[in-house]
From TrEMBL:
CDD domains: GMPK. One of its GO terms (cellular component) is cytosol. GO terms for molecular function: ATP binding; GMP kinase activity. Its EC number is 2.7.4.8. Belongs to the guanylate kinase family. This is Guanylate kinase. The keyword Cell inner membrane does not apply. It comes from Amniculicola lignicola CBS 123094. The lineage of its organism: Eukaryota, Fungi, Dikarya, Ascomycota, Pezizomycotina. The keyword Secreted does not apply.
Length: 201
């Protein structure tokens, strides 16, 4: 494995944001990126799935073969990786470095198992961890229905998973430095912003 550019990563510590599906991560991050257009970056993930029409290698994803993917796993080149629907997905150290080397803060929007992997990576410098929580499972359910993008069955699955994630976030094993409860969106946005860019930004 190539040595990690810890200097760049420590100077621009990545932020890991996690939270149940529907807790508001995309809504809040979109606003943060709009308010600070030059400050952040999303890393480009690796995947073994085939590109869809309009997707470009290195832009939406780094499209790689299964062999290349597993080789990188072997060489500890990912901070986190997982398999969904028969395809592999992962965030490489290099993709995070690329953002940090541009002087930007890399934002990693990842799910619970990925959070555990990042936190336990043997030599990747520790990022800052933030958990975005819905005020309750009842309100999360209303928001998922309101978003109108998920089928009934998907909503039930997301709610079950949300319960697991919220229990994990509140357990002593979770790496989160801060939990923001997304009740009032404006208040939650300000809290996330303060955690990420500091009070005076
Ligand atoms: N504080 C809030 N009050 C009311 N509605 C909200 C609030 N925050 C977010 N929402 C709404 O809840 C829905 C889910 O938010 P969003 O899509 O940002 O969640 P997410 O965490 O990014 O989900 P996923 O992980 O599935 O991408 C959206 O319709 C959004 O407009």
């Amino acid at each position: 494995m190539a040595p990690i550019d810890t200097h760049a990563i420590e100077a621009n510590r990545p932020i890991v944001i996690s939270g149940p599906s529907g807790s508001g991560k995309s809504t809040i991050l979109k606003r943060l990126f709009e308010e600070y257009p030059d400050k952040f970056g999303f890393s480009v993930s690796h995947t073994t799935r085939a590109p869809r029409a309009g997707e470009q290698d290195g832009r939406e994803y780094n499209f790689v073969t299964k062999e290349a993917f597993l080789d990188l796993v072997e060489h500890k080149g990912f901070v986190e990786h997982a398999q969904f629907g028969g395809n592999h997905y992962g965030t490489s150290i290099k993709a995070i470095e690329d953002i940090a080397e541009k002087g930007r803060i890399c934002i990693l929007d990842i799910e619970m198992e990925g959070v555990k992997q990042v936190a336990n990576h043997p030599n990747f410098p520790k990022p800052r961890f933030l958990f975005l929580s819905p005020p309750s499972l009842e309100i999360l359910e209303q928001r998922l229905r309101g978003r109108a993008t998920d089928k009934e069955e998907a909503i039930a699955k997301r709610l079950n998973q949300a319960k697991v994630e919220m229990e994990f976030a509140e357990s002593g094993e979770a790496p989160h430095e801060k939990i923001v409860v997304n009740d009032d969106l404006e208040k939650a946005y300000q809290e996330v912003k303060e955690f990420i860019v500091g009070k005076d930004a």
